[in-house]
Amino acid sequence: MLRTAFHWLVIKGCWLLFTVTCRVRVVILSPVPKHGALIMASNHISHFDPPILSGFFPRRLDWLAMEELFRSPSGKRIFTWLNCIPVERGGTDRTSLRQALQRLADGRVIGIFPEGGIRAGEWSILNGAEMKPGLPALSIHSGAAIIPCALIGSDRLYKPSNWLRRTTLHLVIGEAIEPPAKDAKQQGARERFSAELSKAFTSMRDEAVARFALAPEDLPQTPQARKGEHP
Q: Alpha-carbon dihedral of residues 16, 81, 53, 100, nearest 10 degrees?
């Protein structure tokens, strides 16, 4: 009960923080199922992305998080209470995979950044860059559909003064993409699934640009570029 209350307070706190300090514009292209296993996958442009997505995605997220966050006793307790799953980067982490599959079997929602880290420009999946194989693999092995998301604007928060200007954040939540059958033996089916996912992210970038009349400078930039940005 205490752990559930803590998680709820953190999520509501994230929602309140960004509602007060930013203008958050959320577009849901198709209703997100209220029950059952799902995988929420988003591009990653800043360290602010997890709390933004946790606060504004319609369902509670269990994040796959880098294991470095769990190394201190306090970090381990906090991120465990937030239902995060530690992942070793740079190799196959079967323990985290088993945990993620169990959470999905319990009907929960796993949050994942398929780029494997913060990416902008030509390295962003919003621009067609290749994603890590873990996302389609997790979907296929669990049978859980993927909800692709495009988050634009959070990289501007690296400039402290932008917190006082109510920076606009754009979040586009896409339609669920179903995986091929787990026992599908045709390699082509999995390749087509990965291609469909890749196309979904670029399509949502285009959707955001058209719907919100975004300029090139509004699209994801590196943290270094944003910190040196003129007012």
A: -160
